[in-house]
Write a structure and sequence with these properties.
50 residues, mainly alpha, 2 helices, 0% strand
Length: 50
């Protein structure tokens, strides 16, 4: 039987984003053909490590 690796998937809620920031994220996501969630994940994934 092959081994199966499971990846943990976390979710996160970000509160109190102002309308300008949401509009910027929406526009960036649309320009890249992604949802706002996918765009946020890409931004985090490509950010420099701490």
């Amino acid at each position: 039987m092959p081994s199966v690796r499971l990846r943990a998937v976390a979710s996160m809620t970000i509160r109190r984003l102002d309308a300008t920031l949401i509009a910027r994220l929406r526009a960036k996501a649309a320009g890249n053909g992604r949802s706002m969630e996918e765009e946020a994940v890409e931004i985090l994934r490509n950010s420099p490590p701490p």
